[in-house]
Design goal:
With 97 residues, the protein is mainly alpha-helical. The chain is 40% helix and 8% strand. The chain is built from five helices and four strands. α2 packs across α3. The two termini are 20 Å apart.
Length: 97
Amino acid sequence: MSDQDVYEYLRTIPTGKVTTYGRIALHFGDRSLARHIGNVLHRNPDGDKNPCYKVVDSKGRLSERYTFGGLAHQRERLIQDGVEVKNNRVDLKRFGV
């Protein structure tokens, strides 16, 4: 799994939906890769092309270390995408894929 593979996967997440680091890791066959997925997202060269703002933690929490402007910017991008954010969290049952 390369960084590009992860970025390509991000582009498959539908508008108005989010996923988690662990779910991406499972897609690539190994849940233990979740931390590695976070590192790949932190290196993302293009947040518009590769929508890493759609990735939250396993409890639906936004990332305080979101690469492209921090938590407030991630929250704003999700809201623009139609995802409801309450207390910097997303309801994974409703918005998760």
